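G., the chain you wanted modeled:
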Amino acid sequence: LVSVLSLAIIVYRLPWTWKCSKLLMKFIHAGLNTIAMILAIVSMVAVFDYHNARNIPNMYSLHSWIGLTAVIFYSLQLFLGFAVFLLPFAPVPLRAALMPIHIYSGLTIFATVIATALMGITEKLIFSLKNPAYSASPPEATFVNCLGLLLVIFGALILWMASRPHWKRPPEESAKILQPIGGTPEGTEAESTMTDGSNADKSDLRINSEAARKQNLKLDEAGQRSTM
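Predicted structure as tokens:
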């Protein structure tokens, strides 16, 4: 869940993906989230089966509470993402209003997953290391503690990439307006009318100025003839 979800978060932020179409990146983002959700469900089923086989109580630790909460909210996030952003039925104002919430909730779920993993490996160390105990800092404890630090650093890097404006995918070029064969795009007819009108006004001004110049020349010639 940590690795695949992080890829789904930064898939829009990788510069070499900016040349791909936005629709393709949407499908990749949705596909990675779907894979992460499937893996999370499989892992939860495995945990419950293991607990039931060993007669270990379920849902008693903070690790299990926060983990189950993260999976539930992640499933809601995935469903709303499909319904609002992937399927072409939601209106654009609704998408624009929900996009900041979608981004914030996704980053919050990712941070919650990191915290759940840290609590899980700590809980496992406390239960597993008996001789020597976890408090004696055996090599296994040092190794797993370093793994936890790497998880924190990894999560911080993902959140940093997702929050930097210069890592944001640049806006796509303006799409061309679809039009029937022989038709004119929306607004083109009005623009052409305005252009024709302005051209006509310029032509009238040119004609009037030309006529005035000729009239002045005639008056000058008449004046010159009268003085000869």
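Residues 174-203, 217-228 have pLDDT under 50 and may be disordered.

Shout if anything looks off.
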